[in-house]
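PROTEIN FOLDING TASK:
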Amino acid sequence: MAVVTGIRAAGGVAWRPVAGGVEVCLVHRPRYGDWSLPKGKLEPGEHPLRAAVREMAEETDVQAVPQVRLPSVHYRSEGRPKMVDYWSMHAVAKGGFQPGTEVDEVRWLGVDEAVRLVSYPHDAEVLAAFAALPRVTATMVLVRHAHAGRRATWSGPDAGRPLDARGWAQAHALAPLVALVRPVRLLSASARRCVQTLGPAAALLDLPIEVIGHLDEPRPGQQPDECALAAAARLSELAAAGEPVVVCSQGTVIPGALERLTGRAGDFTTPKGGCWLLAFSGDRLLAADRL
């Protein structure tokens, strides 16, 4: 019996501020004669978040910064199961849209009007979830350092342990992903492996790496809760500044910091080279999306 593979796609609700609220972006597809949210299929090996931002640019000529994961939708397309991941996205730039065979018209509408226009109930549900969000004032990518071998096999001070070949591959893969939030600062815990993890992103974005001790794991005799509180306070402070940033810390710090920022217990364990997309309103964390 043949195995039917699913289709993966990604897209977003791009928004821009207008007097009295926001407008969101819809596209008209002549092939289907429908109005829908911009979306498209993932390329081989592509992360859904990268696909969402790419498809937004390709279909609407809008450059957008992802903020909050919205509900994914599931349906059948051409006899195959399809899942589409969506994010809310702040439209930060746009060029001159040219009608094509895939999309021949783009409209910016108030959310209520967009809900009435979309052709599919699942798009209306995604728009409703977007409308329920508080205003996002800052985005952040929180990264755990990439793979750095085993502590037991490193003979020098642990803070000097470097990335291994696997870790460097992870760091290079992370760079274009964290660049999607268009960060203005890159901040790292003081461990060498944390700084190195942001190295490829620093080269890609032409930004310096700032080392801050508030993100370090506990020193001998120091309580983990103390480090988690310090890290959470520093992340809140960075968010309150209202600028997009990327932060690299350590596996013993990130879960506790996220528990304090979210105000709830949860599974915030993060694999080496893994990251979170965080969205804030002021210094308050609104959403933590595991990437």
Notes: The CA atoms of residues 171 and 271 lie 13 Å apart. The chain has eight helices and 13 strands. The radius of gyration is 20 Å.
